[in-house]
Amino acid sequence: MSQSTPTALRACRVEDRLLGDRVSRARAWQIARQLDWEDFSAAEYLAVASLQADALVASSPAIRNVAEQFTPLASYDSLQK
After folding, report:
1. What mean pLDDT is predicted for residues 60-69?
2. Per residue in 40-55, pLDDT tens?
């Protein structure tokens, strides 16, 4: 958004989180530490879903087993509704 965009509009803007952005990587690092995971790449999916307040659809059993500590889980079937 440019400087000419009204302040109220800029304040209401929703920030999309992406894998690898500074905030999601920091949150992923916290999640990985909490779960005692040495590699935090899988934790990035949990971080982005939790920061976006989204449900997570995951096929990985490792992620599915811990996901509900951080974000709701959804099924593949729920994507078709």
Report:
1. 90
2. 888 998 999 999 888 8
Tokens 């087993």 belong to residue: 65
- Count other Cβ atoms within 10 Å, centred on residue 24: 22
**Dihedral sign from CA coordinates of 19, 25, 31, 32:** positive
Name the packing angle between helices 22-35 and 41-51 (round to 10°). Answer: 120
Measured distance CA(63)–CA(37) in Å, rounded? 11
Apex 78 CA angle, 75 and 80, nearest 5: 130
Distance CA 7, CA 39 (A): 40
Is the model's pLDDT at 22 over the cut of 80? Answer: yes
Single pTM value for the model: 0.70
Closest to 53 (Cα-Cα) out of 6, 9, 2, 17: 17
Left, alpha or beta for 53 (phi > 0: left; psi -120 to 50: alpha)?
A: left
